Amino acid sequence: MKLIFTPIAQEHGEYWKKNAPNITNRIKKLLADILEHPYTGIGKPEPLKYELAGKWSRRINTEHRLIYSVHNDMIEIYIFSMKYHYSKK
Q1: N or C: which end of the chain has fewer CB within 10 A?
Q2: Which terms does the record give in the GO molecular function aspect (predicted)?
Q3: 82 confidence band (pLDDT: 50, 70, 90)
Q4: Strand-pair partners of 79
């Protein structure tokens, strides 16, 4: 499987690397688990609804979520966001 990061997700990743190593470690654990089990595992995975239907969410912490989707029979996993909840920027 392959992880593909959107430009926003890349920005969020750089932000966490510079400002919060503990969150960076949590994100690494979540990404590794997503590669193993896209729909189950750590971070309380849940399918999103409404305008985010088709995407999944996992908890980084109480404030922040990792938003992703799985494509092409789980060959590609797109990471959309790794900061805030769902729509905040």
Answers
A1: C
A2: endonuclease activity; hydrolase activity
A3: confident
A4: 5, 68
Class for the domain spanning 2-81? alpha beta
Which listed residue (46, 63, 71, 76) is catalytic? 46
How is the chain split into domains, by residue range? 2-81
Higher-pLDDT residue of 81 and 30 is 30
Decide if 14 is catalytic: no
pLDDT given at position 83: 84
State the pairing for strand pair 2-5/46-47: unpaired
**70 phi and psi, to 5 degrees?**
-115, 130
37 has catalytic annotation: no
Residue found by looking up tokens 């990792």 in the block:
66
